[in-house]
Amino acid sequence: MPLLKFDIIQGRSDEQLKALLEGTHQAMVEAFDVPASDRYQSVTQHRPGELILHDTGLGYTRSGNVVLLTVISRPRSQAQKIAFYRLLAERLQTDCDLSPDDLIVSLVENTDADWSFGRGRAQFLTGEL
After folding, report:
1. What is the residue-level pLDDT of the chain in tens, covering all 129 positions?
2. pTM
């Protein structure tokens, strides 16, 4: 049950946002083998100048379409992570015309004890999930 948090610069249309969220979800489902109904996504839009994302010396050209994606998830294998990064870049380039230079992903791992889906319960630990 990954939680996907998008930080983007304001200005995308509703259709563009929908394509971004859907393409990311599909890449996650494929790479992490999670159920399609496992969908938790949040978008924070920033004014220009509030999101500073340089290229870390790799020579990437960032634009106003840059996407900073934070994925909070149970531990995944190195192969799953690599597949996710590749699938995501390919899908977003095709579906959203997003340059691979404009995609930054950080995957943060946590464990079953770190999730509660409501009612003050740890559903992964109680066996409800």
Report:
1. 899 999 999 999 999 999 999 999 999 999 999 999 999 999 999 999 999 998 889 999 999 999 999 999 999 999 999 999 999 999 999 999 999 999 999 999 999 999 999 999 999 999 999
2. 0.94
Q: What is the DSSP string of 24-90?
A: HHHHHHHHH---TT--EEEEEEE-TTS-----TTS-----TT-EEEEEEES---HHHHHHHHHHHHH
To the query of whether residue 2 is one of the catalytic residues in this protein, the response is yes
Catalytic hit among 2, 35, 75, 100: 2
Q: How far apart, in Å, do the first and last CA atoms of the chain sit?
A: 10
